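REQUEST ID: PR-0412
SUBMITTED BY: lab tech R.K.
PRIORITY: routine
TASK: structure prediction, single protein chain
INPUT:
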Amino acid sequence: MNGIVAIGEQEQLRGFALAGVDVAVAEDPAGVRAAWAALASEVALVILTPAAHAALAAGELDPKGPRLWVVMPG
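STATUS: complete
OUTPUT:
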């Protein structure tokens, strides 16, 4: 696993793998939470689809946490 991971619906993440980003396909909130919990410690940046962002609780997305996260435009 590299330092960048994208989490969300497969349809929205297709191009990220071509750019060398690890992709964690998660089609429902439980899958998103599982993917987030399974992130390796070396992951520094997580790209979230809007649905993936909505599935994560505010406490899981601590802006002072160990990694930077961004949400794709909707």
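NOTES: The chain has one domain: 4-71.
REVIEWED BY: pending
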